[in-house]
Recover the amino acids of this structure.
């Protein structure tokens, strides 16, 4: 995509983004709510016309070849659009028919996929009776009915418990190994680190940063972060004063209500230096930088909505 | 055209499953209510009307007069019922239309599938109802069987614009209007129960605008064997126009909601 844009009336949801996703890659869109991730996903899904720029999906133009593109896509939308009055298995077999598969193929794939997402025992149950995690797994199974070349997952694990998330990650990893291209949006940094070869951070309809998780951490954060907590009696205003005393020990310092974050390549040395200056934090934590640090640096800590 | 047919075929299993799931629940509204009307008005009120002479009705019994009208009204009511809440559910609540267009299906295909299903619902109900009418002696002429395709057309002439209207709504509060200002007045004033010539002139002309009047008129002419060729063409053309324009608007409405 080049200079891709999307507007709804006066509102510009996507304001010009350039990127390429390669075959077999797992690509992530990160960003706060309203960053333009879902609008971009809908355009890639060939169900939302672009407002500007060029977009090619599997080498085809969505404006003229929408059905041919969609025939090769699997889409797991943000809301489960399952038919809640049909059975679990019917949701898969009927969906397969939309792609022109024969009934026999649909049945066979439905059974395979139910096995794949561990829902075989629920095959005859109505969707209404499934838990949130099961519905999500069923939605993902449904997106795979057509054996897609490109799988679009819009916040696949939002609202799931940790067990369900890890199960889904395993499944997605196996799909990637099988050669399926994955495009994922997520709020979860650990998910992005687990799954994505490459990702972009979007903010305000633009790409704020692009790279592999490791590259992004290298480019936008330091290797380590030292977290200093001074106990509940120390006020925010004192934090500012404390930050002044240690500001030269780190590349960047962030002042939060309950703690100071020192971004540095050697966290232990920073801790030693803090103690040398006669400061005695109540608790100290040295950790590696994560994508979350990158994300918060790029998109800020302010709530978007 | 061939793509639309192929994409229609691909939806067959879906609509069949929907039908299997819902047909029992629709028995009461589809059959019981029209049956009650037929019994109360055709037989109860009818014996009273018939004893006063039926020249104004064209010399047939009141039951025979209202039976085709009730059939057409039933077609209209089923069609509108299937075009309102189910459509809003697919677009807004359950969003199953959204999942359909994430596949090779296009918004137009989804509209055609939905309308075909409504036609099927109307046809199956009306076949049974027509049989019951015949059993009651409500069919004056064998031609009355031709009323079946006519009332399916009535259903489609109503369904297509109502589907279009439903696709423009954000919530279901607008649907009550369809019933209050569309279905109920059409039911009462489209000549099902009395000739519209009995009405004040301006209401009579309003009745002529209603697709239901054309359906009632046509199915009655067929079942009483009083067909006027030119009037038949006019009736059919008018109903077709409602259906075709409504379908076009429905496709536009679905495209706006689903492809945005």
């Amino acid at each position: 995509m080049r200079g891709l844009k999307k507007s709804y009336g006066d509102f510009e949801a996507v304001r010009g983004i350039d990127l390429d996703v390669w075959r077999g890659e797992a690509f992530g869109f990160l960003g706060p709510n309203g960053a333009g991730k879902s609008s971009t996903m809908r355009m890639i899904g060939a169900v939302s016309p672009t407002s500007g720029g060029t977009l090619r999906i599997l080498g085809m133009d969505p404006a003229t070849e929408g059905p041919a593109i969609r025939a090769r896509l699997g889409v797991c939308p943000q809301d489960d659009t399952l038919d809640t009055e049909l059975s679990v298995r019917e949701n898969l077999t009927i969906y397969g028919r939309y792609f022109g598969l024969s009934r026999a193929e649909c049945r066979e794939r439905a059974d395979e996929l139910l096995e794949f997402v561990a829902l075989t025992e629920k095959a005859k149950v109505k969707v209404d009776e499934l838990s949130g995690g099961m519905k999500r797994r069923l939605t993902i199974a449904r997106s795979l009915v057509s054996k897609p070349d490109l799988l679009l997952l819009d916040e696949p694990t939002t609202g799931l418990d940790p067990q369900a998330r890890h199960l889904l990650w395993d499944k997605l990893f196996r799909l990637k190994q099988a050669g399926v291209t994955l495009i994922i949006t997520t709020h979860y940094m650990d998910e992005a680190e687990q799954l994505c070869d490459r990702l972009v951070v979007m903010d305000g309809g633009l790409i704020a940063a692009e790279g592999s998780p490791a590259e992004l951490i290298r480019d936008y954060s330091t290797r380590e972060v030292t977290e200093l907590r001074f106990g509940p009696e120390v006020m925010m205003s004192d934090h500012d004063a404390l930050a002044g005393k240690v500001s030269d020990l780190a590349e960047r310092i962030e002042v939060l209500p309950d703690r100071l974050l020192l971004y540095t390549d050697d966290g232990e040395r920073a801790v030693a230096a803090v103690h040398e200056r006669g400061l005695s934090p109540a608790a100290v934590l040295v950790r590696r930088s994560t994508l979350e640090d990158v994300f918060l640096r790029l998109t800020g800590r302010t709530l978007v909505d | 055209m061939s793509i639309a047919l192929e994409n229609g075929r691909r939806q067959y299993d879906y609509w069949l499953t929907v039908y299997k799931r819902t047909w029992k629940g629709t028995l009461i509204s589809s059959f019981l209510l029209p049956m009650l009307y037929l019994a109360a008005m055709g037989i109860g009120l009818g014996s009273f009307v018939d004893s006063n002479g039926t020249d104004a009705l064209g010399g047939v019994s009141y039951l025979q007069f209202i039976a085709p009208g009730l059939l057409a009204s039933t077609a209209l009511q089923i069609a509108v019922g299937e075009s309102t809440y189910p459509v809003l559910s697919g677009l807004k609540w359950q969003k199953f239309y959204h999942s359909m267009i994430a596949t090779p299906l296009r918004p137009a295909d989804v509209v055609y599938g939905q309308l075909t299903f409504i036609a099927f619902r109307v046809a199956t109900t009306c076949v049974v109802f027509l049989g019951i009418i015949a059993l009651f002696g409500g069919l004056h002429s064998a031609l009355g069987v031709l009323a079946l395709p006519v009332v399916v057309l009535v259903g489609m002439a109503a369904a297509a614009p109502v589907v279009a209207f439903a696709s423009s709504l954000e919530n279901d509060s607008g649907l009550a209007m369809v019933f209050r200002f569309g279905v109920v007045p059409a039911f009462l004033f489209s000549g099902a129960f009395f000739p519209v010539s009995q009405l004040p002139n301006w209401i009579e002309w309003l009745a002529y605008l209603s697709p239901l009047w054309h359906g009632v008129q046509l199915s009655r002419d067929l079942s009483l064997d009083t067909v006027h060729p030119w009037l038949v063409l006019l009736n059919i053309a008018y109903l077709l126009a409602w259906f075709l324009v409504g379908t076009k608007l429905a496709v536009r409405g679905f495209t706006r909601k689903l492809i945005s």
User: Anything to note?
Assistant: Chain B is about 75% helix and 0% strand.
